[in-house]
């Protein structure tokens, strides 16, 4: 029975990873930018929410109303002022720019918040550890379930947005061919900035959920980036539904690893990631140049 | 007054000067065919007019307004639409999405999804297919339809018959003639001189970045165009 519980926990944990990975995957799919500051942007949002909750006593869920638009604005102007310029220098320059940005965010947060580990759990009361018992002696954490539900709604909503709204179609058209997008009236600069806003806001949401489930410090970002990377690579780069699957696979691998051996949590996730990566490389299926249209490709 | 006026336009690809001091006008309702050999600068000229290529010098006036510095996406809203060489559809998107994405950002006018599909009925059964899976003729129809969705005052067509089966070329040109009949203003690049002369009211021939012949289509002979096309006049001058 413990294995079924762990399987469920793994799936729910996978929801968190999918939420975390979605922005990374989206940014790469649309702009071909690998955002190495992704994890740190998530932590930045967690710190913003922590600051609001700590200073005013407002619930972290309410604080999201302020924090998420702030993250979207950060993403928009990050693209407009920094990434857009570095993209002109080729694929490698944004990698260096976002790496630098990661360092700036980490040390900026360290400057203000210090090295202490913090958590948002005390600010959400019982919800942090509440669970439902379902028949068969299985317990499901209510926070984990909420995170999973949010991940599914966000990924599904993003997919619907991309297929059924004109801005969504413009994003896909620009992802495929920015030059021709201009010829049908799409302002590629604006579309890129909107895509960056979506990606950074979703990272921020993931960061806040992380802070609710466990502790974080200004230097927690890179670890989250690695998890996001693993979920994206397992699920297939640029594919939204793949990202959900990738997150779940990573989540199950980690919880099973932890069940086998308390130290096995990380190593099991990494092993599954490496096995999938090796398999994909061998099959020649890891085509990083895939493009956003692969979001909609039926996965075989 | 002319709808489009190009004045002393220079366009370069790095050190290579593709368009050299080109000056011409297109009046409303006119169909100007631009002919010339490969590398004569036709595509660059069209892309520069559409705003996809930054000019090195000269001016482009559209509807009396200087649009030289206006970026492509905003120039589209002034009423210039380009059907690019090689069609350049969004292959991962369906035909319908390709049309809608252009319609959302263009001007409103007589061309809507329905009227475009009436003009190109062959697209109706293919609406939900991905553009990448279409035949060449269907893709070209989608590309022209996509440009029409923006309700342009001036339609720029770059090599619409390139790489198409003869029967598809025939179909594309029948649609073009229908467009011309309802008063569309078209600037057309075409390798096939016969086709170009068949639909155009005026013909301009480009050689090495310059317009070396510009005449009314009814006054021009095939021989004159052929001579200009291959630069024979100049060759004769050099040898004699």
Which features would summarize this protein structure in a list?
heterodimer; A: 300 residues; mainly alpha; ABC transporter involved in vitamin B12 uptake, BtuC; two-stranded antiparallel ribbon; 74% helix; B: 240 residues; alpha/beta; Rossmann fold; 6-stranded mixed beta sheet; 4-stranded antiparallel beta sheet; 10 strands; 36% helix; globular
Description:
Chain A is an all-alpha fold. Chain A is 74% helix and 3% strand. Chain A contains eleven helices and two strands. Chain A has helices at 2-31, 38-56, 60-87, 92-113, 142-164, 166-176, 178-183, 188-213, 221-235, 240-260, 264-283, and strands spanning 131-134, 138-141. Chain A has a two-stranded antiparallel ribbon with strand order 1-2. The longest helix of chain A is centred in the first third of the chain and has 30 residues, at 2-31. Chain A is globular, with a radius of gyration of 19 Å. The model of chain A has no long low-confidence stretch (mean pLDDT 91). Chain B is 36% helix and 27% strand. In chain B, helix 6 (166-181) links the parallel strand 7 and strand 8 (185-189). In chain B, helix 3 runs parallel beside helix 5 (136-148) and helix 5 (136-148) runs parallel beside helix 6 (166-181). The model of chain B has no long low-confidence stretch (mean pLDDT 90). Chain B is globular and about 55 Å long. Chains A and B meet through helix 6 and helix 7 of A and helix 2 and helix 3 of B.
